[in-house]
Amino acid sequence: MNDTTSDSHFDYDLFVIGSGPGGEGAAMQASKGGMRVAVAEKYTQIGGGCTHWGTIPSKALRFAITSTMKALRNPTFQELGVQVSPTLQQLRRGTQSIIGKQVTMRQSFYERNGVPVIQGTARFLDAHSISIDGDKPIRAKHFVIATGSRPFRPEGVDFSHPRVYDSDTILGMTHKPTTLSVYGAGVIGTEYASMFRNLGIKVNLINTREKLLEFLDDEIVDALAYHLRDQGVIIRHNETMKKVEATDDGVIVHLQSGKRVKTDAFLWANGRTGNTDNLGLENIPIEANNRGQLVVDEQFQTAIPHIYAVGDVIGFPSLASAAYTQGRAAAMHMLGRKDGNLRVNDIPTGIYTSPEISSVGKTERELTAACVPYEVGHSLFRSLARAQITGETTGMLKLLFHRDTLEILGVHCFGANASEIVHIGQAIMNQPAGHNTVEYFVETTFNYPTMAEAYRVAALNGMNRLF
Ligand SMILES: Cc1cc2nc3c(=O)[nH]c(=O)nc-3n(C[C@H](O)[C@H](O)[C@H](O)COP(=O)(O)OP(=O)(O)OC[C@H]3O[C@@H](n4cnc5c(N)ncnc54)[C@H](O)[C@@H]3O)c2cc1C
């Protein structure tokens, strides 16, 4: 009898479906570990939703908006009478070149590591074989499903209407609306609300929950809500959509509460669906949940142990950063490398609103619920010389630490470059016991003037509260 699981029966040791960060992380780690790897990608270019319609284009557009609007607010420009209103096409112009650079660079990773990328849609035929666009079966010993997610589209909302968008189509918006309603105040909705407000568009942010971004520390959430409102964003909490009526001159959102909101355009940003519907899951005993997501264990194995799933297709935290780490962790597990501790549960949050937000570790809410005796240290950006020089004085760093051991338990930051600043705290927080305390920041000399100084200020502020 043939042993159909012996390596010689397989075309590849690992076949990866999807070339976003999840797929790339798995493919690179496995090929460096000596596995024969191939990848299927249905889009015309590699890089995934991350590169083409998620992280990269949205962050590139954000940068174009903030830097242009900042320049236009510059007193010298105003004195010179420079009063222009850039179009979305102009602001997006740089994005394609950034995407191009990303694709070229990532393509070279596959080429250098001898990993073929096969263009087409992969579909399982059975638990060890797939077909790409109906071609002859390819057999592999392991699989990684890294097919990502797409915006969930509710019935009754006409996404073909030129005034109605989701997070994929908003990037192609050609006209600049005067007013915009964003339905869904998760990370994507809040980021776009903030971005469009910076562009001078009047924004209604409709939140189905009680607070914005409830997984964040309350003080940070309150600060975000305060600053968004201060910039002119209208936030409506605890609202649920009844229907969306798109007309020639605007979009009316009818809310269950009886309110109606009319704006020039509408962005749906409420939920995402895992890309599992065309994967041939009916041919293998794996089922997606009602959001199209796959359930995995802590090694990222599905119900079939040699089929792994990583990234957005497994749901939370749905971040490019996490997807890449998960892909690498899955490959390491296949390679039997238990030594590579990738800290898959130590995922920082970076939210590119204005002000930017970033955090890692526990929130005050979590520590209070767990009865951990913690103390808080704050540093307000407005008292830092660097922030005074750059004029970016809105913001705060907050350290949560154990009042007995002084171990850092959480780092929460909002303000310019928060997503960079948080990593200093993360690095110390992950040191072995005895080296992971706020004392490090009290004893360390920081460059002056820097934003990193916020750590010393916050640590001293917190230590002063101890008795
Ligand atoms: C607007 C927006 C902003 C974001 N901003 C950030 C951010 O600032 N920071 C951050 O960390 N994350 C951000 N994210 C999230 C991030 O983009 C995703 O978490 C990340 O792309 C997930 O990576 P992935 O590898 O799981 O999937 P993806 O990057 O979506 O890649 C999946 C790939 O699989 C391919 N595919 C699907 N099905 C098949 C098939 N059957 N056969 C072959 N190929 C297939 C798809 O074509 C796609 O290329 C943002 C997302 C959005 C929408």
UniProtKB/TrEMBL annotation:
Domain named Pyridine nucleotide-disulphide oxidoreductase dimerisation: residues: 347-458
Protein family: Belongs to the class-I pyridine nucleotide-disulfide oxidoreductase family.
Pfam families for the chain: Pyr_redox_2, Pyr_redox_dim
Annotated NAD(+) binding sites: 184-191, 271
Annotated GO CC locations: cytosol
Taxonomy, superkingdom: Bacteria
Stretch forming the signal peptide: none
Co-factor(s): FAD
Source species of the chain: Novipirellula galeiformis
Compartmental location: Cytoplasm
Function according to Swiss-Prot or TrEMBL: Conversion of NADPH, generated by peripheral catabolic pathways, to NADH, which can enter the respiratory chain for energy generation.
Protein's name in the database: Soluble pyridine nucleotide transhydrogenase
Gene field: sthA
Keywords, ordered alphabetically: Cytoplasm, FAD, Flavoprotein, NAD, NADP, Nucleotide-binding, Oxidoreductase
Binding site for FAD: 59, 147-149, 312
Cofactor stoichiometry and binding remark: Binds 1 FAD per subunit.
PANTHER family assigned: DISULFIDE OXIDOREDUCTASE, SOLUBLE PYRIDINE NUCLEOTIDE TRANSHYDROGENASE
Molecular function as annotated in GO: dihydrolipoyl dehydrogenase (NADH) activity; flavin adenine dinucleotide binding; NAD(P)+ transhydrogenase (Si-specific) activity
EC number: 1.6.1.1
GO BP, sorted A to Z: 2-oxoglutarate metabolic process
Location of the FAD/NAD(P)-binding domain: 12-327
Alphabetized Gene3D superfamilies for the sequence: 3.30.390.30, FAD/NAD(P)-binding domain
